[in-house]
Amino acid sequence: MPPLPPVASAMHPPWWQAARTLVFPEGCLVCGGALETDLFCGPCQTEFRKCLGPQCLRCALPWNPVAAGFSPQTPCQECRKRPPAFDAAVAIGSYDGPLRTLCLQLKSQRGGWLAPRLIDLLLSLHQEPLERWRTEKAPASLPALVVPVPLHWSRRWLRGYNQAEALAKVLSSRLGLPMGKPLRRARRTPKLATLSRTERRYQLKNAFKLQRWSRHPVAGRDVILVDDILTTGATSNVAARVLKQGGVRRVYTLVLARAKEPR
Ligand SMILES: [Zn+2]
Ligand SMILES: [Zn+2]
User: Fold this and answer.
1) What are the sequence ranges of the domains in the chain?
2) Which of 207, 179, 177 minimizes the C-alpha distance to 192?
3) How far does the centroid of ligand 1 lie from the alpha carbon of residue 42, in Å?
């Protein structure tokens, strides 16, 4: 008797199964284990919760003004001493544990599928400020522009992908706001986290330029500046300053994770 023909599901080559789990993961985002919430398994959810908490409204640094005896709107000590050039910031949480793992995964080109999941997670945690950023119209009455922090062309070429742009694309479609790329990285900068403030300032000097021609003019507008991680805040700060020199009214910074150390 001839063997029975294989059933349909067994006919898919192994790469298909691998690709399918990559695009539609059925398990925990971090470890692939059995899901307990929409995104995580039990242990990863417990770990993930540790990175959440009250943040500085200005720079997203973990900070609880009420516990420190201040009014709820009071920015962190660092922001009171040296206010950044951007006007407000949000992050999912601090750059730790599972959130750190996810940020690292997103950086590799194969991690692009994570962008919608992480943006949706952020939107669910920060509905109020984001709704305000979305609907508050600048006097020019143009909608806010979603702007990714650009990579230097050589770095982008090496990596083949800019994770900030992947995040900005999703955010722009979720909020129904246009995405624009008015910034250009004019200088390649080294890793900034280990440098002193003076060295960072030197390295970031003239790091960003406004495109001479951009489909979305920025003057008079609000901008939501998108990046994956806010480490020292120096990069977003310099980008925000350049945008404001170009006439941007307010700059809101949106990142997935905020490193705990102040600028
Ligand atoms: Zn897990
Ligand atoms: Zn702050």
Assistant:
1) 39-258
2) 207
3) 7
Q: What is the pTM of this model?
A: 0.86
At position 176, the amino acid (one-letter code) is G
How many Cβ atoms from other residues are within 10 Å of residue 158's Cβ?
A: 10
pLDDT tens for the chain, 263 residues long, are 454 444 444 444 444 444 444 555 578 999 989 999 889 999 999 999 999 999 999 999 999 999 999 999 999 999 999 999 999 999 999 999 999 999 999 988 778 889 999 999 999 999 999 999 998 876 767 889 999 999 888 888 888 889 999 999 999 999 999 999 999 988 777 777 777 878 877 777 888 999 887 788 899 999 999 999 998 888 999 999 999 999 999 999 999 999 987 54
Q: Are strands 93-94 and 208-210 parallel, antiparallel or unpaired?
A: unpaired
Cα of 43 vs centre of ligand 2, distance in Å, is 30
CA of 4 to the centre of ligand 1 (A): 39
CATH 3.40.50 fits 39-258, yes or no: yes
Q: Give the Å distances, CA to CA, from 60 to 43, 57, 133, 233, 248.
A: 25, 6, 15, 10, 21
Taking the CA of 76 as reference, the closest ligand is 2
DSSP count for the chain of H helices, then E strands: 10, 7
Distance 36 CA to ligand 1 centre (A): 9
